[in-house]
């Protein structure tokens, strides 16, 4: 379980493409401190398992399902990534409940900078639109954000200078893909209401 509060901007140092998977080596001094085999680390919002750890780098295997559903397949050596360790029990929940289970990908449509923040417009896949509401929570590349405007096939977010400086959203440009995870509570509510309707 994560909170969507990115701990550091890491870097991909190696990519090994296998038949139906990929193995990534990533650098992140903060998230590798005390890391052990089997630990979870969110990479651009995708919960990955630490396979090996040496110094300030760790390796993680990514199966085909994850590569197909997320934007991890476009990562290359030198790509910057958002990194976050799981939330410890008893810690503050600074963002919102994030599982690290990406629901799909969107694409940055446009960026509108201003003096103190920047509005970013992102496309929204049709099957996720019903879960995104104005002023609701959404995870973009592992970052917990508030939806400013929920359009028919897009949403917008407002980014403060800190988010722009410390995450991948300060680097991404129109046309770049981003990982999306909608609020899991909305999905549970939908399932429960659907079950009640079927019962009646």
UniProtKB/TrEMBL annotation:
GO molecular function terms listed in the Swiss-Prot or TrEMBL record: riboflavin synthase activity
UniProt xrefs under InterPro entries: ATP_synth_asu-like_sf (IPR023366), Lumazine-bd (IPR001783), Lumazine-bd_dom (IPR026017), Riboflavin_synthase-like_b-brl (IPR017938)
Enzyme Commission identifier(s): 2.5.1.9
Domain Lumazine-binding: 1-96, 97-193
Domain of life: Bacteria
Lumazine-binding repeat spans: 1-96, 97-193
Catalytic activities: 2 6,7-dimethyl-8-(1-D-ribityl)lumazine + H(+) = 5-amino-6-(D-ribitylamino)uracil + riboflavin
Signal peptide: none
Keyword terms of this UniProt record: Repeat, Riboflavin biosynthesis, Transferase
Coiled-coil ranges from the UniProt annotation: none
One Pfam family linked to the record: Lum_binding
Pathway: Cofactor biosynthesis; riboflavin biosynthesis; riboflavin from 2-hydroxy-3-oxobutyl phosphate and 5-amino-6-(D-ribitylamino)uracil: step 2/2
SUPFAM superfamilies: Riboflavin synthase domain-like
Enzyme class: transferase
Role this protein plays: Catalyzes the dismutation of two molecules of 6,7-dimethyl-8-ribityllumazine, resulting in the formation of riboflavin and 5-amino-6-(D-ribitylamino)uracil.
NCBIfam families: PRK09289.1, PRK13020.1, ribE
UniProt protein name: Riboflavin synthase
Organism per entry: Streptomyces xiangluensis
């Amino acid at each position: 379980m994560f909170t969507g509060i990115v701990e550091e901007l890491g870097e991909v140092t190696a990519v090994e493409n296998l038949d139906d998977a990929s193995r990534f080596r990533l650098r992140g001094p903060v998230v590798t401190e005390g890391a052990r085999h089997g630990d979870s680390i969110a990479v651009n919002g995708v919960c990955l398992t630490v396979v090996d750890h040496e110094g300030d780098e760790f390796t993680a295997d990514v199966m085909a399902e994850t590569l197909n559903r997320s934007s991890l397949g476009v990562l290359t050596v030198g790509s910057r990534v958002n990194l976050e360790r799981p939330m410890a029990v008893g810690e503050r929940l600074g963002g919102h409940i994030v599982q690290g289970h990406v629901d799909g990908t969107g694409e940055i449509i446009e960026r509108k900078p201003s003096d103190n923040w920047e509005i970013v417009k992102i496309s929204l896949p049709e099957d996720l639109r019903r879960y995104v509401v104005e002023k609701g929570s959404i995870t973009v590349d592992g970052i917990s954000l508030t939806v400013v405007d929920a359009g028919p096939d897009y949403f917008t977010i407002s980014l403060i200078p800190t988010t722009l400086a410390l995450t991948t959203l300060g680097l991404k440009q129109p046309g770049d893909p981003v990982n999306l995870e909608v609020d899991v509570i909305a999905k549970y509510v939908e399932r429960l209401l659907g079950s009640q309707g079927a019962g009646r």
